[in-house]
Amino acid sequence: MTKHPGFGALLARLLNHRELGTEALAERAGTAESEIRQVLAGKAPEVELLRWLAPAVGLQVLDLFVLAGAAVPDDVAPVDAAAQEWVWHLVADGVHLPAAGRRELLGLVRSLPEAEPSSPFAPKLLADPADGPGAWIIRMLQYRNLSRTGMAHTLAVVTPTYLSAATYGAIGAGRKVLTPRLVTDFAGLLGMDPGALAALTGVILPGAPRPPAPETRDAAALLWEARRLSAAQARHVAGLARSMRGDSGDGYHLNLPAS
Fold first, then answer.
1. In which residue ranges of the chain is CATH 1.10.260 found?
2. What is the CATH number of domain 7-58?
3. Contact 172, 212 (CB under 8 A)
4. What's the pLDDT tens digit per position in 137-154?
5. Helix spans in the chain (H)
6. Which residue in 21, 143, 202, 243 has a CA-CA distance of 20 to 30 Å to 125?
7. pTM of the predicted model, to two decimals?
C-alpha cells in the first residue's frame, strides 16, 4: 500500500511545477505566507485555506480536498448519486456532436436549476482516499458522478485509454501502476493540466503532452457541470444529447479525438 506523502508535499510538488513561490501563492490566495509555510511543513490545512488555495494553484476546490484527504464540501459534490446512470451517456453522446452542438448542450446543462441534494454524496470507497495517486484520481472521477463503468465508457470515447471497469477499481486500490498515458488521459477528462497531475502523482511524462482534443475539453466541461444535476435532469439531458445526434446515434466511436 502506498503511503500518502502528506498534503504539504503535494502542494510543494505543485508549486514547483507552477514555478510559484510561497509569497506569490499567499498573495494569490489572500492569506499569510506563514500559513502556507506551515502547511508545507506538514500542518493539516484548514477547510477555508483549501478553498482559497484551489484557484491560486489552478485546481478545482473539489480536487484539492481529495488531495488533502479531506471531506469534500456538499456545495461542490454531486447532488444526486443516482444521476451517475445517465451522466456518462450525456457526455459520450454529447462529444459526438459538432462544436456548436456541444456548446449548446453545455449551455443547457448550465442553465438548469441546481437540484437540492437528497442526502450527502458518499461515493463507494475503492481504497482509502489517502492511499496514493491512483486512489486520488479515481476519487476525483467519482466526485464527478462517474461509476467505474462510467469511467470505462467515457474514457474509451474521449481518450485513447480503453480499460475495463474492474481495471479502474485496481487503479483506485493501487494494484495497477499509473502510466504517462493514463495520467495524460485522466487529466484531459478532469480538465486538469497534465503536467500538474504528473507532478502530483510522481509520474514522469516523456515529453510535453499535446493539448487535449476539443471533444475532450468539452467532455471535461460537461462532466464538471453535470455533477450538479439530479437523476431526472441528467436523464433528460442525456436523452436530448442522443436525439441531437440523430441517425448517427447508434453507439459510440471509440477514441473519438485523434490520439
1. 7-58
2. 1.10.260
3. no
4. 999 999 999 999 999 999
5. 7-18, 22-29, 33-40, 47-57, 61-67, 84-94, 99-111, 133-142, 148-158, 165-172, 180-190, 194-201, 214-226, 231-245
6. 202
7. 0.92
